[in-house]
Design brief:
elongated
Length: about 210
């Protein structure tokens, strides 16, 4: 059988042979893709753990008074200053949302539900407190970042290292459609709680 390189310039053939001797053949696409997928899986896990546990810590501050938090009483007093009609109930609800939603996100369990409750908390925070302070800290940049991560994990799915995957339903409850639905529903609920849920809601606080 004739050499496949026989029609090529001799100098070019020699360069190719020398390169193969020193570097060897490059990886195939089938060898590269598993490594990329594994990196993505660990990246999603890192996002879930850091953001989910950060949410849970904030929820523990509100609900249990841990980490120097005000507990239900202090949180209720703050929410009362914002004009909420039932500040004690809202304090417990906000604490449960952050603590429970954060732990669910970290574990990758019921990811759309976790994203939904966390998005509501972040939207409420932006609308009633952070928006007037601008984007940069102490404004809404961190709230928006956490919200984006929660929605993004719903869009991508929680990954192989999650309880949703272990139970086998992650593919049925994640994706672009689920992420869009979660965000839209969270916006509606946030609009209701920051307007009808407040005795003296200032509509100028609501973005847009």
């Amino acid at each position: 059988m004739a050499d496949a390189d026989s029609g090529r310039d001799p100098a070019a053939r020699e360069d190719d042979r020398a390169r193969r001797r020193f570097t060897g053949p490059g990886p195939t696409i089938h060898e590269v893709i598993p490594g990329i997928i594994q990196a993505v899986e660990y990246g999603i896990l890192l996002l879930r753990l850091v953001v989910g546990l950060a949410f849970a810590a904030h929820g523990a501050r509100k609900l249990l008074g841990w980490f120097g938090g005000g507990g239900p009483t202090g949180t209720a007093a703050f929410l009362s200053s914002l004009g909420y009609r039932a500040p004690a109930a809202m304090a417990v609800l906000a604490g449960l949302s952050e603590l429970g939603g954060g732990l669910l996100l970290a574990a990758g369990l019921l990811t759309p539900l976790a994203s939904f409750v966390l998005c509501i908390v972040m939207l409420n925070s932006i609308a009633t407190v952070k928006w007037r302070q601008g984007f940069f800290a102490p404004g809404y940049e961190l709230d928006l970042t956490f919200l984006a991560v929660a929605v993004a994990v719903t869009a991508t799915g929680p990954g192989r290292l999650s309880l949703d995957r272990a139970f086998g339903w992650d593919g049925d409850i994640t994706g672009i459609e689920w992420a869009s639905l979660v965000l839209a529903a969270a916006i509606v609920v946030s609009l209701i709680t920051t307007t009808l849920g407040r005795a003296r809601a200032d509509l100028d606080e609501i973005p847009g």
